[in-house]
Design brief:
single chain; 260 residues; alpha/beta; binds ligand T3D
Amino acid sequence: MSNELLRDTEGGVARLTMNRPEVLNALDDALLVALREALRQAAEDDAVRAVLLTGAGRGFCAGADLGAVDLSQGHLEAGQALVERYNPLITTMREIPKPIVAAVNGVAAGAGMSIALAADIVVAARSATFAQAFSRIGLIPDAGSTYFVPRLAGEMRARALAMLGERISADEAYGIGLVWQVFDDDRFADEAAAIAQRLARGPTRAYGYIKQALNRSLERSLSEQLDTEASLQSEAGRSEDAREGVAAFLEKRPPRFTGR
Ligand code: T3D
């Protein structure tokens, strides 16, 4: 297992820590592969009911490792890396049936910002920053940023962030809908962990169906989405957690969800 990704599981939360702090956790092939593999394992492991993704040191992730880029052919062969490593990672993040919290502890730039936005819930430390850094090096936003940013923040902001490549603060990111919550730095790690722990105690199967329902909702018509809801809700309704949730409500007690 690569040391570039630290992993531990406690209380139903798989914590994945990108661990290349000397380059602000910039992504090389090994880290990209390790991230995807860890997510797949989290999906299959019944003991894992939520994932917390964060970065070691002062960065969350500075995007592609520019030091590892091959310019020997006189150009940057960027498309292949996307097809082979970045895109499968982003797809895996969206599709695994367990909630992912991105705990953005520091700068999230380029594909590092894309990875944060592919999570289900993004929280940030007050000192964290976000940058669609791609155009500063002559590239376009990738790894899902042209999908996530307009949907979360709106078309104009997506265009300006992409073209100007400016760094925005966590509070600005919160203000335009890129982030769920911002916490002061001294509370950040505990607050992010608490959200993941809360999800790990929740109705895991329902969370998986919520992901499915929301993943494509903005591309579907109302009638298609109503059909999707009916079909997924009928699955959710058959879960042990739905039975427990209703029973707990009627008995006026907190539910004890098991993820089944
Ligand atoms: O082929 C493909 O892989 C295509 C895929 C492309 C996807 C992409 O993500 S493209 C975008 C790549 N990322 C960037 O362009 C961001 C580059 N980094 C920066 O602009 C800045 O470092 C930050 C804004 C992120 C942070 O700035 P700051 O001032 O807080 O830190 P710093 O001093 O610039 O960086 C600290 C160290 O990390 C520094 O190394 P040093 O000088 O201490 O030895 C810096 O070189 C290194 N570092 C930062 N980002 C990267 C990096 N090293 C390699 N790759 C990086 N992306």
